[in-house]
Amino acid sequence: MEVPPASPGSTPAADGLLAPATVLERCATGVEGLDSILEGGIPRGNMVLVAGSVGTGKTTLCLEFLVRGAERGERSLFLSVTEASRKLIQNLSTFEFFHTDLVENGSLTFVDLPQIYDRLGFGREELTSEEIGILLRAIRDIVRSVGARRLVLDSLTSVCYRIRRDEQIRDFMLRLGQELNEAGCTSLLVSEIGPVPGRYSLHGVEEAIVDGVILLSNARRMGDILRVLQIVKMRGTSHSHAQFVIELTPIGLLMAPHLKGGREGGT
């Protein structure tokens, strides 16, 4: 039987059909395997937790994310809490994909957050609500002045040590996510965790607020210790839940399948 043409002004939804899904703009990480399982990269403006214990490659992954973005002409910003920028740049120089001119021409900017604390007069161990607001505005102003399209905070855990209360951490992260999203800035926040299954942050609040969680861990196979990457959640895209073995090489992070897993919708 011949199907009559749709009436003028009709839409797939109006005709009882599903409208095509909206494809969000992607922020390619530059790590080929990671971009592949994220269907092109992290959805632009997402705030993503990079969680893992010591020595799992968190900082290295984040640095490559920034360098690859800077190479594409996207201003990139590294906010360091636990390690001096000078030392980070020194360690980064051992990778073949890094070129010092990215720092010299302002494409890649490093800021030591403890210096910002000192400048703002934060002397107490625990920040007050007013000081948290001041810190947020300081980060927003740095992002705007740099014109950052990519940001890494290393680490969120260290910042939360000075906020402490769950409700204040929740408010800090909601406001930070809003500021970064409005700036069109895609961010990776480093979360330092112990080898405890099912926990991705210090307080448990952080992982509920962010748009995505990338888990890095160590696994044993035939007596060897392997670094493993897994996407726990990522809003705005379907993704694999499989585990992938990663190797930190002079040319960057390499990925290979470790355990089979299916694909899931963005969560």
Which helices and strands appear, and what pairs or packs with what?
Blueprint: E1 26-27, H1 32-37, E2 42-43, E3 47-52, H2 58-71, E4 76-80, H3 85-92, H4 101-104, E5 108-112, H5 113-120, H6 129-146, E6 150-154, H7 156-161, H8 166-182, E7 186-192, H9 206-209, E8 212-221, E9 224-234, E10 239-240, E11 243-249, E12 252-259, E13 263-264
Parallel strand pairs: 3-7, 3-8, 4-5, 4-6, 6-7
Antiparallel strand pairs: 1-2, 8-9, 9-11, 10-13, 11-12
Helix pairs in contact: 6-8
What does this structure look like?
The protein has a nine-stranded mixed β-sheet. A two-stranded antiparallel ribbon has the order 1-2. The longest helix has 18 residues, at 129-146. The chain has helices at 32-37, 58-71, 85-92, 101-104, 113-120, 129-146, 156-161, 166-182, 206-209; strands at residues 26-27, 42-43, 47-52, 76-80, 108-112, 150-154, 186-192, 212-221, 224-234, 239-240, 243-249, 252-259, 263-264. It is globular, with a radius of gyration of 20 Å. By secondary structure, the chain is an alpha/beta fold. The chain has one domain (26-215): P-loop containing nucleotide triphosphate hydrolases (Rossmann fold), CATH 3.40.50. The protein is built from nine helices and 13 strands.
